[in-house]
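F.,

This is the one I mentioned.
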């Protein structure tokens, strides 16, 4: 590509951007639940029972998101679920940053974990299906590496932060600001990509699936021969998720 703009406009770069953002959401949320619980407990003066309940909220939310995220993506579409997930992350981040009670923090942790795992389920399926056949291993690998890196960065930040600062308002910043920024970035990145053609074709929406492929790959499928091949491939996917 002749410029940075053209490079960023490449379909694979846009697809991997979705993987990176989803990995960051999941990695930061996992690390936030693990490494800021002590600061929250100190801030609200929690006993051991309340402290364990706070940590359990993230586990329960993550379990629910993991169980139902994939099913929601199968029922309503990969991109649709990711957009709803990003929109849900906005109030979640604001609640986490402005919570004045333990119940509000628990609710924010529960919802954030559910949203993060829903993002994981939907984004892996979405980016895998959008990626070129010879590059389909790249999105899941990118997601996993990004999530692990985000976890390490939050761990280092918590390790070298002042315990007093973390207990005062630092946990609010860690729990709210990253998710707020990531939610906005996710919405922007998803605006540039279509719904999964494979998912559309599996639901019998062949015209929409073909339009999605054309939007993704542009001029490479405009010839009549390429269009016929594309149509045949989409018909093979019809009824087969």
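My design for it:
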């Amino acid at each position: 590509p002749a410029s940075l703009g053209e490079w960023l406009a490449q379909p694979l770069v846009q697809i991997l951007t979705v993987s990176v953002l989803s990995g960051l959401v999941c990695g930061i949320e996992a690390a936030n639940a693990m490494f800021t619980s002590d600061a929250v407990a100190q801030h609200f003066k929690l006993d051991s029972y309340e402290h364990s309940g706070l940590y359990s909220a993230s586990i329960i939310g993550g379990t629910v998101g993991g169980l139902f995220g994939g099913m929601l993506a199968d029922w309503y579409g990969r991109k649709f679920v990711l957009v709803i997930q990003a929109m849900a992350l906005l109030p979640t981040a604001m609640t986490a940053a402005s919570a004045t009670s333990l119940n509000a923090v628990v609710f924010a942790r529960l919802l954030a974990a559910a949203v993060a795992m829903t993002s994981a389920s939907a984004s892996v399926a979405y980016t895998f299906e959008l990626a070129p056949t010879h590059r389909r291993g790249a999105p899941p690998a990118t997601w996993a590496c990004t999530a692990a890196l985000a976890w390490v960065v939050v761990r280092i930040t918590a390790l070298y932060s002042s315990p007093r600062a973390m207990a005062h308002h630092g946990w609010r910043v860690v729990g709210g600001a990253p998710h707020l920024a990531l939610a906005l970035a996710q919405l922007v990145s998803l605006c540039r990509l279509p719904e999964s053609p494979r998912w559309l074709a599996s639901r019998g929406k062949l015209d929409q699936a073909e339009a999605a492929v054309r939007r993704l790959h542009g001029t490479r499928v405009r010839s009549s021969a390429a269009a016929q091949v594309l149509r045949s491939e989409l018909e093979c996917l019809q009824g087969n998720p």
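Residues 61 and 72 are 15 Å apart (CA to CA).

Talk soon.
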